[in-house]
Amino acid sequence: MSQLRWDPLKMIWVVIADQNSRRPSDFILERQEPLTSACPFCYGQEEKTPGEVFAIRPEGGRPNRPGWQVRVIPNKYPLLRIEGQLEKRGEGVYDIMNGIGAHEVIIETPDHLRSMPSFSVEELAQVLRAYRARLIDLRQDARFRHIIIFKNEGLAAGATIPHAHSQLLALPVLPAHFQVPLSASKDYFQRKERCLMCDIVAQEAADGRRVIRDDGEYLVFTPFASRFPFEVMIAPRRHHHDFALLNDQDLLRLAEVLKDILRRQRSVLRDPAYNFILHTAPPVHSRPGKPGQWASLPYDYHWRIELVPRLAKPGGYEWGTGFHINPTAPEEAAHFLREIDLPAAG
Predict the structure, then answer these.
(1) Element (H, E) at 168
(2) How many structural domains are present in the chain?
(3) pLDDT tens-digit profile of 291-309?
(4) Domain of 135, in residue numbers
(5) Which of 23, 59, 74, 147 is the most exposed place for a label (fewest CB within 10 A)?
C-alpha cells in the first residue's frame, strides 16, 4: 500500500507510491547534453566571459588568464544585477522592487570533459572553498537576505553549458521555499530547545534503513519523505548552522563524502542528470522595526546539501496539490546506493 509521509522540515506531504516500486534500471535514460560550438568556460576563452571576481590559481598568475583551477565570474546574462538600489514600492495590492542581487558562475575545472564525480578529493575541496569565499564576501552586502548555491548537471536538470559549473544567486528577499524550513526550525527550537535537523540526523542514524554513509562527521541519507526517487541529503553530524564557517579540514572531509555519493549515484543510475543545492544560514542584517530577527539561527538552523537526480518529471497532480509522488521508497533507494560495489576511486 502507498503511504503519505510528512516532512517536518519542509512541511509538506509526499506520496510514496511503491506498489510497483521502480528500481534503478527503470530510470536509466540516455544522457542528453546541450551543444556548444566554443565553450566560454575553457582555458584560453577567458575574454569571452565577464571578469573574474574570485579564482584559485595554484601557480599564481594574472586574473582572467589561463592557470586557474576554479574560477568565479558574474553570469553573462544575470537574473539579478548587483548595481543599483532596491527602491521598494507598491502598485495597488502588489509590491515591486528593482532586480537587485548577484548571479555568479563557479567554473569548477578548466577541463571541459570532466565532471564532479571524476574530481579528486582535493579538487572538490577547492570548489567548496570557492563556495565559502563567495558566501563570506556577498553576505557583507546588507541588501541581500538569501544566498543559494546550486548546480544543474545535465540538460534534464537545467544545464545550458556542459562544462562543469555551479551557480550562486544572492536575493534581496527570503523565498517562501526557504522560509518554510527556516521557520519550522525556529518553531521547533522554541518548543523543544533542540535543533530539528539534529534530531532528524540522530533518528536517521539510529534507524539506519535510509542511511547511505555515516563517517561520524557527515550523515548521507535518503529523506524519510523523499520528494523524488533517489533524492539524497548530506548533513553534518554535529550541529552547525553556517557552511561559510567551515575550515579547510571540514571542507576536505566533506569533499570525500561528496565524491563518494556522486560516484554511487553515477554507478547505480548510470550517470543521471541531477541538481545539487546547498542550504545554509541566511545573511543576518539588522532590519528597521525587526530587532533580533533570526537571532536564534546559530542554535536552530542546520546547513545541509540536497542531491536530486532528475529521474521523473512532476505532473498535474504535483502542480495542483503541492504533493510529490515518489515511485521508489527511500529505504529501497538507500539500499541500492549503500550496497553498490564501487571500484577504487581515481
Answers:
(1) strand 165-171
(2) 1
(3) 666 788 999 999 999 999 9
(4) 39-78+95-285+295-339
(5) 59
